Amino acid sequence: FLSFTCSVTNKKPAQASITKVKQFEGSTSFVRRTQWMLEQLRQVNGIDPNRDSPEFDLLFENAFDQWVASTASEKCTFFQVLHHTCQRYLTDKKPEFINCQSKIMGGNSILHSAADSVTSAVQKASQALNERGERLGRAEEKTEELKNSAQQFAETAHKV
């Protein structure tokens, strides 16, 4: 089972990536197969705009990758999120969407709101994780300072 994600960091400027993951039968976890930065995406090929099929191709700067979504509907949703993400986060070269159904390129406000909500939640979680990491780093520094102070005290006490 292959799945895919489009994620955005909370760094400034934001960095978006596309990750292809695989879930093995009988497992609940996913294994990352490949990952590209959104800026590397050059073309999204829906293969046939007149047929609901789960197959599609992504052309990156230095790679071509064939994909199969679980369903045609999942492919459509991924294309809509990907298109919205490209419009929002890419300022220079935006990828070309070819052989895609016209509904993918339309402005689905519900999808855009959902994508914005997911992006916001990811950014908040990432920020909380970064803040926790900073606190842990400060705690480690303080622990090291206390250790050094204790060693100096022990050496001084031993001399006396």
Summarize the structure.
The chain is α+β, with helices and mostly antiparallel strands and 160 residues long. Helix content is 46%, strand content 26%.
Description of the molecule:
There is one protein chain. With 160 residues, the chain is α+β, with helices and mostly antiparallel strands. The chain has two domains: 105 residues, Roll (PH-domain like); 52 residues. The protein is 46% helix and 26% strand. It is built from three helices and seven strands; from the N terminus they run E-E-E-E-E-E-H-E-H-H. The protein has a four-stranded mixed beta sheet, covered by helices on one side. It has a three-stranded antiparallel beta sheet with strand order 1-2-3. It is elongated and about 90 Å long. The protein starts with a strand and ends with a helix. The mean pLDDT is 81.
Keyword list:
single chain, 160 residues, alpha+beta, PH-domain like, four-stranded mixed beta sheet, 3 helices, 7 strands
Count of individual beta strands: 7
Structural classification: alpha+beta
Assembly context of the chains: single chain
CATH fold assignment of the largest domain: PH-domain like
Low-confidence stretches: none
Largest beta-sheet characterization:
4 strands, mixed
Tally of individual helices: 3
Report the average pLDDT across residues: 81
The CATH C-level name of the largest domain is Mainly Beta
Helical residues, percent: 40-55%
Count of separate structural domains: 2
Distance between the termini: 69 Å
Approximate strand percentage? 25-35%
- The coarse overall form would be elongated
Strand order of the largest sheet: 6-5-4-7
Order of helices and strands: EEEEEEHEHH
Q: Give the name of the CATH architecture of the largest domain.
A: Roll
- Radius of gyration from the CA trace? 23 Å
